[in-house]
Amino acid sequence: MQSDNSGIDNISMDNIKEFGATSIPTMKNNIHCLPIIGQVEGHLILPPNNKTTKYEHVIPQLIAIEESKDIEGLILILNTVGGDVEAGLAIAEMISTMSKPTVSLVLGGGHSIGVPLSVCTKYSFIAPSATMTIHPIRITGIVLGVSQTYDYLNKMQERVVDFVIRHSHISKEKFYELMTRPGELANDVGTVLVGKEAVAAGLIDEIGGLTDALNRLKKMISKKKGENK
């Protein structure tokens, strides 16, 4: 027996495929939600079975949000394993320099380059069950065994560390201690922080969920409106 889809338009079919719903409710909203999900894809295209966030998609969105008269705040939702260092850092730098109120919420994980992305907003939350992995920069491919390779990696590492300590309450010494701690990661050095541990370390501002993040963002928007009057 064949089904008759003649009553479903193309938009509805796309919504079914993309969202699992026949229609998506539309409403005017002054808050934009930007998800950073999976692996941050940079200059190299990852395999199609990888869930990725492409930086060339995110950057134009950020410019549009900053220029929009309707959008008054940004909530950044993170569940990422990390990815391209320069692409992730570029996104984090852009968000940190936005004039509009911004709040981040780490759900699941904010690992590796996800750490700078988690702290780049004006206020940050982490779910109690979420984790953050802090470790030194890793590289793949051909590595030249010369001193210049070490100098390059050291400079890249310093860029990440400097960004994190400028946008959070963690000290440089504490961050390096967590980053180089042996014994917690299999075949590697680093630290996994769970929820309240990330707050206690000074990386994240507060434990919370979606309602907490939205309420905080709304208060920031109201405060900014009051200052502009």
Describe this structure in words.
The chain is of the alpha/beta class and 229 residues long. The protein has a single domain (12-228), classed as 2-enoyl-CoA Hydratase, Chain A, domain 1 (Alpha-Beta Complex). It is built from 8 helices and 8 strands. Strand 3, helix 3 (85-96) and strand 4 (102-110) form a beta-alpha-beta unit. Residues 1-7 have low confidence and may be disordered.
Largest sheet: 6 strands, parallel
Total number of distinct structural domains: 1
Round the Cα radius of gyration to an integer and report it: 20 Å
CATH superfamily: 2-enoyl-CoA Hydratase, Chain A, domain 1
Question: Order of helices and strands, N to C?
Answer: HEEHEHEHEEHHEHEH
User: How many strands in all?
Assistant: 8
Stretches with pLDDT under 50, minimum 5 residues: 1-7
Predict the CATH topology.
2-enoyl-CoA Hydratase, Chain A, domain 1
CATH class: Alpha Beta
Task: Please state the structural category.
Answer: alpha/beta
Helix content: 40-55%
Q: What are the salient characteristics of this protein?
A:
2-enoyl-CoA Hydratase, Chain A, domain 1; six-stranded parallel sheet; 8 strands; 8 helices; 229 residues; 41% helix; alpha/beta; disordered N terminus; two-stranded antiparallel sheet
